[in-house]
Amino acid sequence: MASTAPPLQESELQSWKLLAQFRARLRPHLATNPKSPTEQDPRHTVLAEDYFCLLLFGLLNPALKSMRALCRASRRFAKMREVCTQPFTQTAFSESQHVFAPEALAGVLRELATQAQGRAEFGDHRVRAALAALTAVDGTALRALNRMTWTPACGIGCAVKLHLEFAVFDDVPADWTITPGKVCERQTWRAKARPGTCYVADRHFSQDHQMLAELQATKIDFVLRLCANIVRTPVGPARPLTPADVAAGVVSDRQERLGAGAVSPEVRVVEIHAAGKVFLLITTRLDLPAEIIGLIYRYRWQIEVFFKWFKMILGCGHWLAESPAGVTILLYSALIASLLLMLGTHTRPNKRQMEAIQLHFLGFVSETELFAELNLEKS
Question: Could you tell me which residues come within 8 angstroms of residue 21 by beta carbon, excluding any fewer than 6 positions away?
Fold first, then answer.
């Protein structure tokens, strides 16, 4: 079921003043967060507000994608005073990642994520009725530079990892952690998992049986895919399958004990055959039909779609900062950009719509033309 939202109204085009909107949201957080000693030095004239706005501008516009380009534009073009109140040198820009803490951006990000809740209605009504919340969990690696020595090599070389909790029904990020690429996604999730929601994730997250037992003990629900080579011991008879289960490809539904070690959690295992593949799904939810368990797992792909859009549409793989704090600032800025765009369009803009948005920022597309482009698929 596709995400539904009310059609975009022409009066809402004011939301395309994204930098002004971001600046207004940022200022209260900057006022309440403690300043670093460098910021308190009267000789330091660079403003956190200017640095963060320049970073966001670099993510949203199609022309200026490097530190040199942003800094030169800030010095050469009067129109850039709408982005930053004063010119930036490359030295000041590079130093800023060590001066300004990312906590203010984290506050803006949480505020936007909260505002985005309830705006979409993604998912089958039966799943929405059965679950108060459904959160997809996964991580994505962003290739780092070799000189970023704090990111030790993993499968793709040096990398930064964005660990994300994605609110499936709202179709937006819900929580995030940024680490070097080698940090385990399971352990990051384990530290943040909380009762009251149901988590869905792929096979990697089902391999730690001790963690599964701990999640069960703390009443945290999950639907996870299971690796085919795991030792499984049936516990009791199989559940009867309904015609709807059979139509959804379910071939087995029973309680099983996982593994043969000291810790062997007992879980419900639903086996589904679909698209020529076998899916073994484990869950703590004993009250839901097997077909609904399969449908919940399908919604895991929403986080993969977001990761692809985040990387390819926003083009956030170019590092305008390279320190741990600087990378955190940059990825927070990219997530803020994604939420501002989603709140403004009521959806994730596709590539053609993003081009129209960027051309509007450059002054080549009028507000009327932008409005028509963003509503093209809804007309």
Answer: 15, 340
pLDDT tens-digit map of 118-142: 777 788 889 999 998 999 999 999 9
* Nearest by Cα to 107 from 36, 188, 30, 49: 30
pLDDT > 90 in the chain, percent: 65
CA dihedral of 15, 19, 21, 25, whole degrees rounded to 10:
150
CB distance 50 to 124 below 8 Å: no
* Count of beta carbons in the 10 Å neighbourhood of residue 22: 23
Contact 339, 314 (CB under 8 A): no
Tell me the pLDDT tens digit for each residue of 57-82.
988 887 888 899 999 999 999 989 98
Tokens of 219: 């009443």
Helices (H), the chain: 18-32, 37-40, 48-60, 67-76, 90-99, 103-116, 125-130, 185-192, 209-217, 243-247, 290-298, 301-312, 324-345, 351-362, 367-374
Strand partners, 139: 163
- Output phi, psi for 312, to 5 deg: -85, -40
Strand-strand pairing, 266-274 and 172-180: unpaired
Stated length of the chain: 379
DSSP 99-122: HS-THHHHHHHHHHHHHHTTS---
- What's the whole-number mean pLDDT along residues 96-103? 95
Mapped onto helix, strand or coil, the DSSP state of residue 232 is strand
**Cα-trace Rg, the chain:** 23
Phi and psi for 2 in degrees, rounded to 5?
-75, 155
Phi, psi of 126 (to 5 degrees): -70, -40
Buried/exposed 310-336: b ≥16 CB within 10 Å, e otherwise: beebbebeebbbbebebbbbbbbbbbb
CB 67 within 8 A of CB 90: yes
